Amino acid sequence: MDPDRLRELIDGVARGEVDTAEALERLAQLPFVDTEHARVDTHRALRQGLPEVVYGPGKTPEQIAEVVAVQRQVGLSVLVTRVEPDAARHVLRHAEGGDYDPASRLLWFGPEQVPIRGKGLVLVVSAGTSDLPVAAEAAGVARRFGNEVELLQDVGVAGLHRLLASSDTLRRARVLIVVAGMEGALPSVVGGMVAKPVIAVPTSVGYGAAFAGMAALLGMLTSCASNVCVVNIDNGFGAAHVATLVNRL
Amino acid sequence: MDPDRLRELIDGVARGEVDTAEALERLAQLPFVDTEHARVDTHRALRQGLPEVVYGPGKTPEQIAEVVAVQRQVGLSVLVTRVEPDAARHVLRHAEGGDYDPASRLLWFGPEQVPIRGKGLVLVVSAGTSDLPVAAEAAGVARRFGNEVELLQDVGVAGLHRLLASSDTLRRARVLIVVAGMEGALPSVVGGMVAKPVIAVPTSVGYGAAFAGMAALLGMLTSCASNVCVVNIDNGFGAAHVATLVNRL
Amino acid sequence: MDPDRLRELIDGVARGEVDTAEALERLAQLPFVDTEHARVDTHRALRQGLPEVVYGPGKTPEQIAEVVAVQRQVGLSVLVTRVEPDAARHVLRHAEGGDYDPASRLLWFGPEQVPIRGKGLVLVVSAGTSDLPVAAEAAGVARRFGNEVELLQDVGVAGLHRLLASSDTLRRARVLIVVAGMEGALPSVVGGMVAKPVIAVPTSVGYGAAFAGMAALLGMLTSCASNVCVVNIDNGFGAAHVATLVNRL
Amino acid sequence: MDPDRLRELIDGVARGEVDTAEALERLAQLPFVDTEHARVDTHRALRQGLPEVVYGPGKTPEQIAEVVAVQRQVGLSVLVTRVEPDAARHVLRHAEGGDYDPASRLLWFGPEQVPIRGKGLVLVVSAGTSDLPVAAEAAGVARRFGNEVELLQDVGVAGLHRLLASSDTLRRARVLIVVAGMEGALPSVVGGMVAKPVIAVPTSVGYGAAFAGMAALLGMLTSCASNVCVVNIDNGFGAAHVATLVNRL
Amino acid sequence: MDPDRLRELIDGVARGEVDTAEALERLAQLPFVDTEHARVDTHRALRQGLPEVVYGPGKTPEQIAEVVAVQRQVGLSVLVTRVEPDAARHVLRHAEGGDYDPASRLLWFGPEQVPIRGKGLVLVVSAGTSDLPVAAEAAGVARRFGNEVELLQDVGVAGLHRLLASSDTLRRARVLIVVAGMEGALPSVVGGMVAKPVIAVPTSVGYGAAFAGMAALLGMLTSCASNVCVVNIDNGFGAAHVATLVNRL
Amino acid sequence: MDPDRLRELIDGVARGEVDTAEALERLAQLPFVDTEHARVDTHRALRQGLPEVVYGPGKTPEQIAEVVAVQRQVGLSVLVTRVEPDAARHVLRHAEGGDYDPASRLLWFGPEQVPIRGKGLVLVVSAGTSDLPVAAEAAGVARRFGNEVELLQDVGVAGLHRLLASSDTLRRARVLIVVAGMEGALPSVVGGMVAKPVIAVPTSVGYGAAFAGMAALLGMLTSCASNVCVVNIDNGFGAAHVATLVNRL
Amino acid sequence: MDPDRLRELIDGVARGEVDTAEALERLAQLPFVDTEHARVDTHRALRQGLPEVVYGPGKTPEQIAEVVAVQRQVGLSVLVTRVEPDAARHVLRHAEGGDYDPASRLLWFGPEQVPIRGKGLVLVVSAGTSDLPVAAEAAGVARRFGNEVELLQDVGVAGLHRLLASSDTLRRARVLIVVAGMEGALPSVVGGMVAKPVIAVPTSVGYGAAFAGMAALLGMLTSCASNVCVVNIDNGFGAAHVATLVNRL
Amino acid sequence: MDPDRLRELIDGVARGEVDTAEALERLAQLPFVDTEHARVDTHRALRQGLPEVVYGPGKTPEQIAEVVAVQRQVGLSVLVTRVEPDAARHVLRHAEGGDYDPASRLLWFGPEQVPIRGKGLVLVVSAGTSDLPVAAEAAGVARRFGNEVELLQDVGVAGLHRLLASSDTLRRARVLIVVAGMEGALPSVVGGMVAKPVIAVPTSVGYGAAFAGMAALLGMLTSCASNVCVVNIDNGFGAAHVATLVNRL
Q1: Tens digit of pLDDT for each residue in C100-125?
Q2: Phi, psi at D217, each rounded to 5°
Q3: pLDDT, tens digit, for every residue of E187-196?
């Protein structure tokens, strides 16, 4: 399907000549769509029942608004990640119906309440205040992906009583995302407290020998708790994606 | 409970004066046990219904045999990882009823058929022949942990037709473990083919700029497929542990 | 030949007293030319039939304009790489007849259509949208160096169907340049699909463990496809140069 | 095609019931073959007219002999790389008709004279005596892949007169493989002397800050000669493969 | 004082012509002594009331025996570190009165009970069984340096209950040495439980991304507990030296 | 205790209805306090008799002012680290009674003279002028933590006479903090001159191969003086904390 | 000598009450001087007959002007390195008689012609245009330190004819400073052409795998020419200092 | 000149038909010689009046003996570096008149007393006992290259009095080679004590964060003494070569 036919289809939807169900069906048959700037994969989102996700950095507000518009016209939700407040304001001027959360830097175009499809609780645990942006991204994405989510913050390993006081919460979780910078020790401790899969997210928080997240990353990869797996530094989004797939099983 | 009382309990079991159920119950109440060489955690295995796992390297055959004996007396299964053939032969001379698999270097003391507790298929996918030991460890551990397991090997990304020919198998899996050395590209490709959690295991296979698994590790952490999480280099055991927990959800 | 005599020669050309053929012949006999700021090598471009190439970064618009002027007077084409839009506008105010392409950041002074000297198709394949600037540089340079060029973009390995749908295009190429950031897996996959030389370009796209292109670079160097060779991170120009020399064979 | 049917086919050839042409045709239709230990790709070699290549390290002499036997029965040539003298002797006891070269550590099963299919000279240039094993591998592989090959050795950059004295040889080459350890400067110098593609191979020769080839690798990637591309450390085979593909264009 | 006069002095002691007090006084005035193989510093040990310490690796048993003999003749105690069992046996054949401990690899020549000069308890805490050799070295050295020492082992962070059960012991310590490999998280947790100085020792235990202690080292340097300072990887001796100086304050 | 009850308590103090002693007692029973932005640990400061410390970077002046206000109301001193002059001015407009020192970038809310609780002299030694900010932080923190402190600066190892001229000062110290960038050699030299614990602080001073403090860090970790332990790069605060705990023993 | 007495001495010079000879003599007896901001070493410069050198970065123009004033009053020359044009203008407003060279970023206060004390030619050789700032610093410092200096630029190894054309110049040098970025190959080539000491300076020129000078640094350290020694990345000053000391022998 | 003619020439010398002077003259005209295994450069040694140097590692005793024989026949001295005792014994059985020193691992074929051509003292300074092999290599090579050499050992920076006691020796040197492992601080201290060029040699002595010489290398490159230049890790030979060239000026 070439871009022209895609545009025609979308215009048809816009003019009310093609209904959403039909448009979706036709789109679902396409493996991908060639637009002016990129080859967009509409397939996966549709098959998995997940919103389209756009990685914000390196895109102008105009480009983001354009992508959002295309998706919204065919009835898809869109989640834009890592959008700074200024850029968010800019996009929201061009694209209606968006919701921006500065803590997680997520920009959301979709229903206010996403239906819960995850079977249990996704618990996001955060070591320090500075790790909060990454933890908030993980929590926000997991919510928009249809999970019940709780966020347990500031439970670093140098103050164990805080973590121990939350052991009931830890046990209630079906899958855990643990976010930590500096020495990245929290996933090891949490991993020892629960018999559930732990997805560890190192953050670039720290200075000197933290080497922009390297110390935390190596620490998590060599964790003495063997129920821990790891995603890239600051990758709250990836952790939420893995957690969502696990939580739907 | 001090070592003496532990020994007494175990001797009681050995002499038939204490039955297994009672011994297990008493052990389950202990958070840990101080033996001569180490503080052993009997708790977790019992609660999670997993066998005790012993990491082989750095232990003499005698030490391994000793640990095995203690566990076997109270009726627990034991899995010893990374045992070289010579050491295995040595251990098997001291400890009866063991089963050694040279491909995975796993030494198993327990029932021949572990009851299946995982809800679906754990698929282990391996890039090249040299990655096989790690893939075999992952597969072997997952089996001993009560999962249905399949091993799909030699489907490296430079020969896509092999992988594509196996797409049905990929889709049948509930959780995937993908093992690759060198550039570690296989998890990205597999991650794009399935909407399931992918646990990636970099291996130390390769030379020069492979830097003993570093190239594969970095590649997997920066995967363009966001349903991928990563464990330590050559850590087939860890991948199987995470997969088991996921597969029981 | 000293700078004064060079200036004299160029002035002669400017005044119409020396014709281009003669000037070229005299220049071709010089191994190099000492100008005020640098020892310029006029030799190679003349012998190879390639335009002079100027690396933009670190040069002021005035310096670029000056170099361009000198080359243009003796009838040589000039290609300036990595010129930001602002700098380009500045140069174009001083030097006439230039053509700037913001996508590739190339600034070109020469014939609109460079005669094709390459014997086949140079195909530039790009993994993600963010890799486009490097891919565009490679494609633009290859075109200015006299090759037929096609650009196949957004065919990352996590969406294999896109790449497979383009397998005919891949097979039509005589030499391929494959551009990818993050885990840099695309050259391995493409290398397995064609029996042609593949020149891999890692990009600095990605964050965290991508380490500014290091992950992609290591991945490409350890590719399991052995028809792959590698140039420096973001070095679209170098890839195009090698491809040009190969394509003229 | 399952292993049994493959064995049947090969037995048929062995018994003279199936002729080679027919066997080859049937094999060429298979994308791959599942044997006991690996999924072997017979496709590529057949399509490209190259011998099958087996990477020696990590395989026992018995395993190598087995693979060789299978390939030889259907009439394919086999090249085994990085075989140490002891292992070679062992293999040659089991597999007839092999030819071992200790300098390049290549073990060859095939015609003594491979028909020349490359259109020009592949020149292998080597910096120091210690780089010779890698250079010899590159030269040996290129010969077995059907190229006219010359080897120019011991022309390190600290003794320029040696290199300059060979400039005619350099100019005669259609494609060059340049092998160097330590600071890896030779490809830059050679790249400046020829207008041909240069494939650089860093070697692990050197100590201290050479970091097992890292210094040479980084030096070649950042070469000031832009007609240079690079393969993995010590990867003489890869360089020869790329050179062969280029030389057939 | 030249070697000859030193020998004379020592011979005098050996023959009973010079008494120990006089010999010590004369030695204490020397900043250093030139022997055949090295310039030995007798000063510091004498002033600080610490035994002479010899780093074993790289020395032959004969050389160790020689050094020990010289020191013993003037009445000094000697502690040799990192001596493998075979070498120890060898030394003990040449030098009488030594005591070897295989767990800590320490070889001691001096009084069986060193008088306690430290003002409180030096507690050595060890994460896993594999960290024991380093922890034993730290504990053994601290004892030989005149401290009351306890060793708390196998209290890794993935089994918090073990550590929590020992909180009284932790609080009794005046200075703590915390030894851990892999992710090296234990010092952060212990540091949060006590208001005492914590000396962290990373060990080279672990594989893959542990990078021979690098992960633990970085983790300890970036600890979120700010009462932690760090010594070199596996440097149990250095930790004990610092702890001794602190414990004498 | 929930935030509301905390607020109530603090309001009670503010209104004079609860006296400080009672408030402190109630706070001391709390392991931690949940405020709007973070879980604050009031415990440790109270038990250890140390002021609350706030790490400045990443916090807005408003957030800092808020935290300060809460602590001040219950009578606690607060020390804010790494505050740039502009931010300090901003905070001081909102929070009364603060004292800012630009050299150490410390912002202090508490008594002008902190009672001395350390038993001896904490000596901060600094290698070069550029290391001064880190040395000043260490000295400032140690003073606010109740130590007698002296600062000996510009005694780099390339001008030994300066250091030797200060040997009396070195010997007067009970514990030493040694701050150095570039090659970080100063702690080794100082460590050899005193029989006291030396806490080494590498700084990010230097360029090129200094790698932002890496050279100094590695140098200090491998110091030939074994009475040296190390904290993170630029971590003057951590060094002062360890020194304070040591100096109170 | 305390700062007050220093000030008195300098004031005496300023008022003409103390003559320069006397002031110099008194200063030469001081190992160092404590000023308000730093412990300044006046010794070395005086003994070696070299001007005082001030490293510019991290100092405000006011601080530089102050230091210059102090030195100038007692008749010493001062060389300030790495001064950006804006800062230079600023300093020159406060301190008279200075000379600023933007190419080398050197600011000089002293005689226009420094008497030649070096016994031969110091030749500075530079690989590319971008290496010029470092080469100019080396050349400028060497001149101010009393050497005859020549600068040979743009003789990179990819254009050997340029370098060969300068072989007479190379042979005329008594000591050579060779400056190169990227792969840093020039010192190896130059080292092979002369039997003189070569001081190599890697520069941070280059991108990607140049890793801010790391590639050049490693290349120079592993040079196959053994008459090469190396200084820090971009350290033109250090190279000139070593060259000066060598050239005075 | 081809190998045959070379052999003829050497045979002529051996038979007494060609006298040495004539042979030398003819060899001096050759830029290089092609032997069976390598292109040998006879030029440099002859022109510089230095013996031929052979790097031992990677050569069999037979190969070394062969090279030695060739050189000796034409009257050249030969120095073989890094020869282990066993290999040395082997070579000495084949080649007469050699002298082996196990401390420096140097094998020498030439006059017992090399005429002194250096103008002053080359002083080799060594930090610790373990650095001795490298220091001995530097000293031995410098002696064989015609320098007066002294070796000052075991003067590490943690025992300053030793170094200070040798300050007269330091001042007597014309050029200094300073050898140190671990933190590599010695060159900085020595560099501050003398106004002479200091050639620093990092050694691979040390463990953990010493990273096989990396810590010492970085420390020396970032030395605060600017009269220091650096050679590769363990490169005692290179340091001696540079020192020799400097000492002949």
Answers
A1: 999 999 999 999 999 999 999 999 99
A2: -60, -50
A3: 999 999 999 9
CA B209 from chain centre, in angstroms, equals 28
Distances (CA, A) of B126 to A107, B102, F63: 38, 17, 51
pLDDT over threshold 90, residue D203: yes
All residues of chain E having their beta carbon less than 8 Å from the beta carbon of residue B233 are 207-209
**Lowest-confidence pick of C125-139, D43-57, E107-121, H196-210:** D43-57
- Of the candidates G127, G182, G219, which has its C-beta nearest D215's C-beta? G219
Average pLDDT over residues E211-230: 96
What residue of C is the nearest CA neighbor of A218? C209
Query: Per-residue pLDDT averaged across G52-73, rounded?
Result: 86
Asked if F155 contacts F148 with a C-beta cutoff of 8 angstroms, the reply is no
Residue G73 has phi, psi (to 5 degrees) of -60, -35
Q: How confident is the model at residue A27 (pLDDT cuts 50, 70, 90)?
A: low
At which residue do the structure tokens 């033996």 appear? Answer: B35
d(CA A172, CA A153): 16
β-strand B52-55 against B173-180: which pairing, if any? Answer: unpaired
Pairing mode, strands H78-81 and H52-55: parallel
| F82–chain H nearest CA distance, Å | 26
Report the C-alpha gap between G73 and G16 in whole angstroms: 11
Residue E4, judged by CB atoms within 10 A of its CB (0-12, 13-18, 19+), counts as exposed
pLDDT in tens, C41-97: 555 555 567 888 999 998 888 888 888 887 787 778 899 999 999 999 999 998 888
Burial environment of residue G86 by CB neighbours within 10 A (0 to 12, 13 to 18, 19 or more) = exposed
Q: Which residue of B has its CA nearest to A238?
A: B226
Give pLDDT, residue A3.
43
Closest residue on chain B to D54 (Cα): B129
Name the DSSP letter for residue D212.
G
| Residue C174 one-letter amino acid | R
> Vertex G94, ends G93 and G96: CA angle to 5°?
80
Distance CA C153, CA C128 (A): 7
Degrees (nearest 5) of the Cα angle F236, F241, F243?
95
The alpha helices in C74-159, defined as continuous H runs, are 85-94, 132-144
8 Å CB contact between A170 and A205: no
B222 DSSP 8-state letter: T
Q: Hey, is H230 helix, strand or coil?
A: strand
Write out pLDDT tens, residues D143-162: 999 999 999 998 999 888 88
Question: CA-CA distances (angstroms) from residue D52 to B127, D145, H62?
Answer: 19, 10, 37
Q: Is the distance from CB of C232 to CB of G209 less than 8 angstroms?
A: yes
Query: Would the pLDDT of H135 be above 50?
Result: yes
Write down the pLDDT at residue A10.
Answer: 57
Residues 80-139 of C with CB under 8 A from B: 127-128
Q: Are B153 and D38 inside 8 Å of each other by CB?
A: yes
pLDDT at H204: 95
Confidence (pTM): 0.90
* DSSP letter, residue D98: E
Closest CA relative to residue D239, chosen from D181, D196, D198? D198
Q: CA D176 to CA D124: how far, in whole Å?
A: 6
**Contact between chains at B161 and D31 (C-beta distance less than 8 A):** yes
Whole-number Å distance between alpha carbons of H216 and F70: 49
What whole-number distance in Å separates Cα of residue H193 and Cα of residue F231?
30
- SS3 of B117, please? coil
The β-bridge partners of G199 are G177, G229
* Residues in a beta bridge with E198: E176, E228
Taking residues H205-233, what's their average pLDDT?
95
| Residue predicted with more confidence, D105 or F72 | D105
| Nearest CB partner across the interface for E207, out of B41, B44, B234 | B234
Q: Which two tokens stand for residue E68?
A: 């020990």
